[in-house]
Amino acid sequence: MRVKTEEQIAAEEAWYETEKVWLVHKDGFSLGSQLKSEELSLSEGKVRVKLDHDGAILDVDEDDVEKANAPSCDRLEDLASLVYLNESSVLHTLRQRYGASLLHTYAGPSLLVLSPRGAPAVYSEKVMHMFKGCRREDMAPHIYAVAQTAYRAMLMSRQDQCVILLGSSGSGKTTSCQHLVQYLATIAGTSGNKVFSVEKGQALYSLLEAFGNSPTIMNGNATRFSQILSLDFDQAGQVASASIQTMLLEKLRVARRPAGEATFNVFYYLLACGDGTLRTELHLNHLAENNVFGIVPLAKPEEKQKAAQQFSKLQTAMKVLGISADEQKACWLILAAIYHLGAAGATKEAPEEQAEAAEAGRKQFARHEWAQKAAYLLGCSLEELSSAIFKHQLKGGTLQRSTSFRQGPEESGLGDGTGPKLSALECLEGMASGLYSELFTLLVSLVNRALKSSQHSLCSMMIVDTPGFQNPEQGGSARGASFEELCHNYAQDRLQRLFHQRTFVQELERYKEENIELAFDDLEPAVDDSVAAVDHASHQSLVRSLARTDEARGLLWLLEEEALAPGATEDALLERLFSYYGPREGDKKGQSPLLRSSKPHHFLLGHSHGTNWVEYNVAGWLSYTKQNPATQNAPRLLQDSQKKIISSLFLGRAGSATVLSGSIAGLEGGSQLALRRATSMRKTFTTGMAAVKKKSLCIQIKLQVDALIDTVKKSKLHFVHCFLPVAEGWAGEPRSASSRRVSSSSELDLPSGDHCEAGLLQLDVPLLRAQLRGSRLLDAMRMYRQGYPDHMVFSEFRRRFDVLAPHLTKKHGRNYIVVDERRAVEELLESLDLEKSSCCLGLSRVFFRAGTLARLEEQRDEQTSRNLTLFQAACRGYLARQHFKKKKIQDLAIRCVQKNIKKNKGVKDWAWWKLFTTVRPLIEVQLSEEQIRNKDEEIQQLRNKLEKVEKERNELRLNNDRLETRISELTSELTDERNTGESASQLLDAEAAERLRAEKEMKELQTQYDALKKQMEVMEMEVMEARLIRAAEINGEVDDDDTGGEWRLKYERAMREVDFTKKRLQQEFEDKLEVEQQSKRQLERRLGDLQADSDESQRALQQLKKKCQRLTGELQDTRLHLEGQQVRNHELEKKQRRFDSELSQAHEEAQREKLQREKLQREKDTLLAEAFSLKQQLEEKDMDIAGFTQKVVSLEAELQDISSQESKDEASLAKVKKQLRDLEAKVKDQEEELDEQAGTIQMLEQAKLRLEMEMERMRQTHSKEVESRDEEVEEARQSCQKKLKQMEVQLEEEYEDKQKVLREKRELESKLATLSDQVSQRDLESEKRLRKDLKRTKALLADAQIMLDHLKNNAPSKREIAQLKNQLEESEFTCAAAVKARKAMEVEIEDLHLQIDDIAKAKTALEEQLSRLQREKNEIQSRLEEDQEDMNELMKKQKAAVAQASRDLAQMNDLQAQLEEANKEKQELQEKLQALQSQVEFLEQSMVDKSLVSRQEAKIRELETRLEFERTQVKRLESLASRLKENMEKLTEERDQRTAAENREKEQNKRLQRQLRDTKEEMGELARKEAEASRKKHELEMDLESLEAANQSLQADLKLAFKRIGDLQAAIEDEMESDENEDLITSLQDMVTKYQKRKNKPEGDSDVDSELEDRVDGVKSWLSKNKGPSKAASDDGSLKSSSPTSYWKSLAPDRSDDEHDPLDSTSRPRYSHNYLSDSDTEAKPTETNA
Length: 1730
What we know:
42 helices
């Protein structure tokens, strides 16, 4: 990690303080600064932004603002490393890198490539070698880095790898594939036979580009097929073999293609060929003026020249790939034949005329001469060619079966003329596409032949290249996309879904299996509606049924069904498709994968998760999906060719399975891995649904993509996302719905170009944003950042990283058997000292954050290199010792040989030796004969064994042959079974077609039957009318005869009754219709209001969801940034601990060096003292010599005197001479000792000089190290201060968040208060309305009492009385329920108020806690500052104490040196004293002068006094040293105390941080509680609305009851019977008793119950009054009811349109039935009167 300077850190802090943001608009994004919202008065959801480029101030939505990163992140190599990971930041980084020509960028585990406009120089061979052998962490983002990562992973894990390239057409996928292959071929190399090399790779892509690419509106050289290039590697990591499989080839492009696009490149290359001989042979010297296939030569000369060069390059490539000249010629012949077929054309005749013209054959061609050329080039006659193309229309059953297309029910129907007829042009197009498909398959087989090898391969690497997303509108074309483009877009969608499954689904499932708890709330689930709309299969896909079920199925399945159904059209296809996947009512735009287009036969399909809407044109899709028999005849035509070079190629391939069901080519292969891939693809086509539907052309599309996905799923995937930086037709205003759906939800209209930096305008930001959203790279990077992308099994992790913890290995031993892997991994992780958030333990795996495993790998490599270095040193030492031992043995052997040679020279002439050398060979002969016999026996045994082995081998060979024959038999049986199954499938298809035809006929007959039945009914009605008219005429004649007859009266009466009934029914119908219309209008109004409210709430929900996602993303970014800082702090702490240990080691080394220096100083002082003493001794010796010379002189004088004196005797003279000789000998010995001492002194002086120089050098190095350590300590202290500043900033931000939460709380409280006031007001209003309704009901009961008085004589029917009673009971129950609901609502409101109070109390408590924490933080901050000052002072004191201690130690060492020197001097003096004493004794014996003895004694006394002084000095120094040691111990204890205090302060700071985090979580919990309270409030409002609705419905019921009572009263006035009055009284009594029973229940204590009780008391009193006189009243006759009726009508309220409710409809049927009953009662008196 690069260390940032102070300036960079300060710049980043200033950047983040200004709150830089990105303002998103439709042209891109602009940089601005967000102004503080505290000082502004903005509405909710709005922020104020000041733009940087022009200083404009705008009020924008929160959703349009995204946080910006510091300028240091502008060109990051990995987008997942951004601090704030959002869309604008990613686009800005990509734009900056693209402007700097940095085309590749890491996006988490994937690579993002921007397609370059040109050929940059970043793909050279020199760049390749820069990536060789590197890890991903050490490589810059590049396509070579992906190849190296996959290659390294393959070598390490021995697992197959796969690189998948995704993106739009023209984004550079094929170019990236070429770079991948070139890198692998260059770096990995190939084995000795050069199976795959760089030249072969280039030749391969040249061939595929010529035959499989063509220009389109989006790309000048677009790939028109999908391919899987597989490289197989051996044990050494070299390429052993290669193979390629192709699928989804646009073979129809040869004959038919979209407008404005060209055919395959090879046709233009061939037409521009410069070889005259080849052109003459292919009949290309004279080209046709027009071609029905649209194959015309290039017009511009430079284009022709370039095409000719490309043709030469193509021929060279084919030669490199081992394609011979004859094989090349066969390819050119087929291509030229296709061109001549297009020039020949076909006649445009009616289908009836075509059947007659087919007999003549050549009449179907428009130009026969060109058809003749085509037939000549294909090696057949014109009749055979015409028959193969056109004759199938008469003899469809005689066609050769081919595997290219399925044989459906149409084939069997061709013979009788009932099947579909194809035009001559369609047959010609089918033949051309079939020929080109066979040619392309042949070329793929030839390429695989050149690349295959029989070498053993261990693992493989696959490279998947498919055509990108096709959108004609993106290329500036107004046409609809074709079926082939749909297939390619579908394949891209499937690969995108595979990327989603590997990146999201599998990771989440793995976390769930391993019990790893991670929250990914901001990640939206992927919707694969576009894929399902194309390939979704029903559960009955295997059942051959003609009935169309309602189960949804995809477009491919619908195409297959419609192709089988007779009379199917594209409109029916679209209707069925939209019925399954079209937009529903209420769906928003973009929710469904399909949209209708304004053009006929067009529809819109949203690819890439709804970001790329493509408009498709389905015209002609049904005819395309039906088989073309001419295509099936193409292989047979090539196999039966008269040209050997053509027939030999295709006959050799006729029996091999190189093509799978006419879809996948290149399944041959020599290696084991190639056979395994081919088996996997075949399995896809032979299992389940594929075994039945594999011959269907539509289902083949799905099966091919399934085979591709199943093949790559088994390997480890590496994804490369290729983006288009610029596209024509995309920039600027979008032109249709498809492009409008790409833009942002809320866009601002800013001037284009203001927000872009100079030099970076070539990047199309809206296009790049759409591709970024479609690929879901942001979600993938969030998953990569928040999750644990790296994981390993416990045992593997322990075995791999055990080397980083050698102490664990020493603890357990090498052969330790691990019982609990999890516990062992936990110990290993503890020893590695990793940050806790960087790893997590699952049930069977250990998971790591991104980058953690890479750091562990780096540490492992370093440790392994150190261990290898030590191992190499040990090996070299061992080898050196062995070499030395060998040399010693060789030396011993040489000496032995030399000794033997010497002895041989001595005995070679000895007779006995000669005899021995003669006898020795005879003895060896005897021994050799025994050895020969033994060898013969061994040979015989080996022969026996060989024979036995040979027999076994023969038996095994026989068994093998038998098994092979058995396998061949089983294979033949299997082929027979397959043929039987295919024939059965054909029969089933024919049967299905027949059943479809029968079903159609049955439907037609059913429609005819229904029509005839209706016609018969109409005729019967006419007959009945005629009969009635006839009867009327007869009646008229009778009336003429008898005018006063009885029948005329009856007839007139009946007619009057009919007219009256009609009028009454018409009036009732009009009343009902009016009521229905009013209720309908009211319902529509309410529905509109509810819909508007729903839309508004949905919009608010979407905004809140977006805001929640944005805030969650920012929170995750901040959390990840905090985790990164924690990891960094952890690393710094580790470095600090390591630095402290190194510092202590340095101090110890310095101490040791100091001790050594002191020791050397002491040695130096001792040497100096010795030299000084030796000098003194020398001087003393000189003085002694001088004294001795004087003595000699005196003695000579005495000798002369003695010699002169004859009186001395000879004995004394001899004695003197002897003494003289002894003295001379002593003098010589002393001179020799003096010379030796002088030499010793010189050597000691030289050693002293060397020691001084060494001490000076060590002093300088130590001073430098101390300075560097001081600088590191200062840097660590500064970093700690920065951390404290960052903590302060975080605490300030938290304080601001708390203030914001408090403001939101106050706003919510105010809202709740207003809502509670509204609720209370609504309650009062509803209570007033209910009281009014109760009063009206009371009046109604009083009127009912009056009416009952009137009903004594005219009693109504029991049924009407019961109905009235039921209505009254229902109204009472409804009122009671409304009152109870109101009370329950009041209780809930009170509970809500209590909850709000609790929330307010909790918030106040949290505020107090936060303020307390703030105070504690301030106190701790001040305490930390004080501790820092104390620490500084303590450090100063410690430094001073250390310096003083060092000085004291130096002084003490000096004193100890002096003490040692004194001890040495004492010893020397003692030795000298002994020597002197011996000399004194000798001198005393030798008559020396006693003055010398006295001097020596004085010197001895002086030395003894000096010795005593030195002893006292030593004692004083020892006491001083003990005091110094005590002071040092005190200083050390004080320093330890300070360190412990500092650690306690750090722990307290961490505890405060934890408390702050807990406070944040509590604030979040309070926010959630507030949201819950608001939700409950909303529910209560909804309950209030429902109660109001119920109240209105009750009012309507009451009004309807009023009307009904009026009708009943009118009926009662007409007719009453006296005996029914008693029934009425009894029914009222029953009602009263029921009410009393209900009153006894505890629920009935309300105001409404009291009013109802008053009404019931009134009824009781009326009953008691009218029990007696009831009979009398009945006898008196009927009462007059004018006054009660008028009173009742005055009480009935007026009906208005605004008082209707939907609940009226529930009670309306009952009332209509009552109206009919009334009419019945009214009809009775009418009959009696008549």
